[in-house]
Amino acid sequence: MFGLKSDWVLEPKPRSFVKEDYDAGQAKWCPGCGDFAVLNAIQRLCRDQQLLPENTCFVSGIGCSSRFPHYMKTYGFHGLHGRAFPVACGIRSRRPDLNLFVATGDGDCCSIGAGHWIHGLRYNMKMVVMLFDNNIYGLTKKQTSPTSPKGTFSNTHPDGSFMSPMNPITVSLGITNTSFLAQTVDWNPPHLYATLKAAFEHDGTAFVRIMQRCPHFTPDNYTPYQNDPSKVLLMTHENGIQGGEAVEKTFKTQVVHDPTDRPGAFELAINHDVLPIGLFYRNPNAERYDNYSSVGADMSPADKVEAIDTLMDHYVV
Amino acid sequence: MSSESINPVCGVETPVDHGGESGQRVKEHIVEIVSDSGEGAQTAGQTFGSISAKMGNGVWTVELIPAEIEPPTRSLNGASGNRIRVGSGPVTNAGDKADTVIGFNEQVLYSRIDAGAFRPGTRIFLENKWADDPQPVIRKAYATALADFQERGFDVVEVPMEKECLRFVENPKRGKNIWVVGLLCCLYNRDLDLVRKEITTKFQRKGEKIINMNLTLFEAGYKWARENLDQFYVIPANPDKTPRVVMNGNQAIAMGCMAAGMELCSMYPITPATSVSHYLAQHFKKVGGFVHQAEDEIAAIGFAVGASYAGKTAVTVTSGPGLALKTEFLGLAVMAEVPLVVVDVQRGGPSTGLPTKVEQSDLMAVLFGSPGDAPKIVMAPSSIEECFHFMITARKLAETFRGPVFVLSDANLATGVQPFPRPELSEDWIAPPIDRGTWDANVSPYQWDEETGVSARPVPGQRDGNYVLTGLGHDDKSKVAYQSNINQKTIGLRSKKLASLQKTLKPPEVYGGDSGQLLVIGWGSTRGAIEEAVDYMRADGQLVSSAHLQFLSPLQPGIAEICARFDKVITVEINYSDADTNGLGDQPQRRYAQLATILRAATLVDIDCWSRVPGSPLQPEAIRETMMQHLETLGGVKCSV
Prior knowledge:
Structural class of chain A: alpha/beta
Strand content of chain B: 15-25%
Distance between the termini of chain A: 39 Å
CATH architecture of the largest domain in chain B: 3-Layer(aba) Sandwich
Shape of chain B: globular
Oligomer: heterodimer
Number of strands of chain B: 23
Largest interface: A-B, 63 and 74 residues
């Protein structure tokens, strides 16, 4: 009545949140794990956006990085290996009010969950997807992943892996209705933060591949880029990721890339001489499945009964 | 009935004189319409069934569906059509042998002969155009079959269906089915006004020209029958004053989804479950709901689990092969206590099996399919009416007991059509809006009641309720816990929910006498056939009864006590079991039917079984024969005084 919603709550004083309000305590990753940097960036983002913890939800699959929700003091869903996308899409389908994040790894997303990855990007529901790519299965103790470089010595390929790695960016670029594709690294906090912030502000599924160090099983995979920042290619553009001065000082190898240029993004992604970071592609006007799926979520029980009654009448003899 | 004059579209002006009391009165008849796929036999069958229901007859119709869309014509596997059983009183199953058959060609009838659907004396109205087919092979096949049918004792009436239709339309492939409806409506003295209305409604969207063409064909078929047939039937009806609805099992499940207040159906196409979502896809938006066609079966249940976690209890609809793929998420729903309704419309298995045919062989997979201890609630509707009402119960139980609830239907119920009293809808069935109130921070997300195992569930959006759901072992705060004492306790609490539900259930009702020689226990769609067999036997004075289980997990209480009142107990099921003498003579290794195995373990009663996998509903007659054999092993047939 009087236009008030039933969920309207009188807040005696405005709530404000500090970073610790999103921190669920000691994370159990290995010392030196890149996941800590992402956790820190996300907690900063939540604070800076003043997200209500009860309206924020982290969904993950299985793997080291999929423990992420446990370390956030928000709602969380730590589900099944490879299945973060369907769960997150199901949550989003009827709950446009929640802030939704997905944490997934290279095995979780690009191997066992590859089918859901393709369709998740196509559905383009509003959520941030963080692909923690450490090129290895960590939690099951060092097996080859789809993004492991050729020749990776692992417990499943003790003589070195046979196949060249899959490139999650080129795959994602090929998916119809992909709307936001970015790549960043865990060891540069400003760029990581700026990328996640842009992802959060995107109106659709924002897919962020985070090059994530695993000190235990793939300690050397990213050291060339860490030791020599010129091997990192910073994509810049007025509509791209705005990393700030510090980022531009660190990564001097730069290219201006318009994020509406999909073929250009592909060219950059397949260049394996350098590690491109920044925004590959963005289309803010891509169709969103959640705009269809959430229709009617606020219909009243009385209206429903009336509508069902009418349908039932069709069957009356 | 049929006393009104007929619309003179094709010159039939006078009411048919054989009607009323002058036709032969029969209590019931079974009619089959069988054609190649795409010739409209199903439309004809549905129309005839619907008219009969509207006249107040008891009706059960079941579809005969090939697995392929357009299989080769004139082939045994391509048979498509409908069986319609029409009775004076309520009809609860598809019955035994057909009385009247319409065959669009002779070859498709062999699939029905294989299924044991005909008897000597079954009257077959057979399209006779094949006798003059330009191809000698076809002419010969027709002649051979005709002779064979006569040898089998069928009463074959050759009918020039196509020739008659060609007088009105250019392409008899479109419309022959409605001509046949005319023939049947004359044969069974159906109410002409009702038929006209039915045809008009059916073709409403196709425009007046098509409506008129079909009315013409209908009346031509009617007229032909009146002029050429000499025997007609009257199946007295008891027009019921209470409002009734007519729908098939999958439509009832779809209506049930809506009436239960579920807002989301997440599915992946699979026969014979998909038509639930077809109906929902058409109408769900009118009640604020949505059908999600997922990329695969796993995503379908994952999406539903996500929505349920977020406070919007969802349903996923599948069949055997899809169920197999969903097992991991089912385990998660049990472990993390996510309410969820799963409909399994069972078909023949294993593997792809018999996609369009009935079987009851998913019971074990549903009960034990998930690795680890994963207790679930499992219900099995036994009628179209229960398909509707069980959906409402299922959602309530899913919410109350915080976990997955199965509704085990099957291909027989999916396409079976039966009238039932119009449900009175209730706002209480509809889920309330999401609670966005504050959660009591002192209550943990799994604050299990030690007595019942039940706990309240915070939903995203509720302040101070935030928790991280996990499929890992966890304590009441949903914190990952591997400690042995916590695991033992929490698995026990989740199991306790079944025990708590069981406390609230009633023992199954015994149909027939409270005690006696033989008790038949069944579940699911076989109820009508079993009870009809019991009726028949008891009318003959034999001491047989039946009990039908609505809950398969937890089992209803009191089953052992009921069994103790009978000399022998058997289950009757549509799944595989070794025969009593399995050829190898290894009795201890005998494989029992699925419910029998469960009941033997649960009751320690030496329960026997009779089960078959014919890909078709069990016929009452076959069940009667089985009962007779068991009575004989009990030392002869006793009769009540």
